[in-house]
């Protein structure tokens, strides 16, 4: 089996902004000094290899760097140090509403989002009815998505993403905004992708779900990868 995701020595830093008073800003301007900026390291020298067909659960407490790592793998963020290689078609469900234009209708956004994820217009048209049926928002498909609830966004985004036939599927916590029946439907679809041998990386705080669904658990703490192994062991460490 070959590696489909290779993360080598990846670090990501963010600069933290501070609000300053007008007096401070004026004084700095007179002294021709720029405001000091703190940098924060969200990911620190992370190495991770994911093999074709693995279902990896990315775990960690709030702020440990899970979403940042997923965004780096999907290409939404660029690492400051290190390199990332991904083989095959990648579909990511990372932020609700990302890749959607608020002023366009659901229908138009299916085409926009499908194109962003690499589908041709003909393929989107062929899959359109199935995409809408899976999302169960037929009634609102010609409504501008700025009027959608976060659950409706998720429904359409998940549906488009799974219909792109991805080799690598990245899913962040966003499933949490779906109602229970839709979450179950998404999980069934995720299991189907897994049984087809697709590679999955899932970020979730639902530890029981991760322990059941994933073949491997990876734990981040303060931007460091601190454990990589059996998901049940990683979950046990988080709970200890
Ligand atoms: N654009 C940004 N600018 C500044 N700091 C950021 C930015 N994006 C993320 N961070 C910081 O990086 C750290 C890691 O964030 P990240 O979203 O990756 O954590 P997470 O493990 O996914 O957390 P959660 O479980 O709460 O979703 C956090 O402290 C966050 O505030």
Plain-language structure description:
The chain is of the alpha/beta class. It has a single domain, classed as Rossmann fold, CATH 3.40.50. 37% of the residues lie in helices and 27% in strands. It has helices at 22-30, 66-74, 106-116, 121-135, 150-162, 180-195, 207-213, 231-239, and strands at residues 3-16, 38-51, 55-59, 81-86, 90-93, 168-171, 199-203, 216-221, 224-229. Strands 5-6-7-3-8-9 form a six-stranded mixed sheet, with helices on both faces. Strands 2-1-4 form a three-stranded antiparallel sheet. Helix 3 (106-116) packs across helix 4 (121-135), helix 3 crosses helix 5 and helix 4 (121-135) crosses helix 5. Residues 14, 40, 42, 60, 62-68 line the site of adenosine-5'-triphosphate.
């Amino acid at each position: 089996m070959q590696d489909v995701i290779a993360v080598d020595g990846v670090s990501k830093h963010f600069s933290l902004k501070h609000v300053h008073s007008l007096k401070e800003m004026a004084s700095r301007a007179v002294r021709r000094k720029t405001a000091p900026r703190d940098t924060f390291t969200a990911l620190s020298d992370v190495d991770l290899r994911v093999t074709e067909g693995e279902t990896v659960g990315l775990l960690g407490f709030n702020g440990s760097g899970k979403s940042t790592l997923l965004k780096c793998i999907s290409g939404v963020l660029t690492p400051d140090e290190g390199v990332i290689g991904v083989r095959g078609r990648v579909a990511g469900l990372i932020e609700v509403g990302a890749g959607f234009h608020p002023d366009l209708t659901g229908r138009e956004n299916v085409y926009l989002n499908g194109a962003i994820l690499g589908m041709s217009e003909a393929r989107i048209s062929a899959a359109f009815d199935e995409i809408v049926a899976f999302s169960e928002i037929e009634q609102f498909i010609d409504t501008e998505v700025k009027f959608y609830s976060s659950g409706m966004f998720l429904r359409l985004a998940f549906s488009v993403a799974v219909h792109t036939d991805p080799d690598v599927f990245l899913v962040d916590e966003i499933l949490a905004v779906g109602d229970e029946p839709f979450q179950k439907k998404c999980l069934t679809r995720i299991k189907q992708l897994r049984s087809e041998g697709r590679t999955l990386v899932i970020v979730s705080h639902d530890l029981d779900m991760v322990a059941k669904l994933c073949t491997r658990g990876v734990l981040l703490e303060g931007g460091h990868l601190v454990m990589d192994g059996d998901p049940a062991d990683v979950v046990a460490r988080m709970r200890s």
